[in-house]
């Protein structure tokens, strides 16, 4: 069994994830236990297999192993800029990430306009 790593979600909180677990699954569990209090809404979850693109995130720090993911949602340029599908990555070290789903971007924009 692989090691366990801390996943820090920018502005939201932390999760723990083993090296054999998809990061999205760890984030869902952490939200269920109230450890991602900074999230204004439920994590968007779709296919859980790298195909629908709703779980986009930007890796800010750390190393990960990548499963297959749709190039329709993460281009090679996106990947080079640190974008991933969180259901298609497994941590190899502690990770820091920013959620980049369309739903969360809208929430951030709406919050910025309201203030
Ligand atoms: S949930 Fe569909 S790509 Fe991650």
Question: How does this structure look, described?
Answer:
The protein is an alpha+beta fold. The protein has a single domain, classed as Roll (Ubiquitin-like (UB roll)), CATH 3.10.20.30. It has 3 helices and 7 strands. The strands form 2 sheets. It has a 5-stranded mixed sheet with strand order 2-1-7-3-5. Strands 4-6 form a two-stranded antiparallel sheet. The protein is globular and about 35 Å long. The relative contact order is 0.24. The structure holds FE2/S2 (inorganic) cluster (FES). The site of FE2/S2 (inorganic) cluster has 13 residues, from loops.
Helix content: 10-25%
Largest sheet: 5 strands, mixed
- SSE succession: EEHEEHEEEH
The unique ligands bound to this protein are: FE2/S2 (inorganic) cluster
Name the structural class. alpha+beta
Per-chain topology:
Blueprint: E1 4-9, E2 13-18, H1 23-32, E3 56-61, E4 64-66, H2 76-80, E5 83-85, E6 89-91, E7 95-99, H3 102-114
Parallel strand pairs: 1-7
Antiparallel strand pairs: 1-2, 3-5, 3-7, 4-6
The protein binds FE2/S2 (inorganic) cluster.
Task: Provide tags for this entry.
single chain, about 120 residues, Ubiquitin-like (UB roll), about 30% strand, binds FE2/S2 (inorganic) cluster
In short:
The chain is of the alpha+beta class and 115 residues long. The protein is 24% helix and 28% strand. It is globular and about 35 Å long.
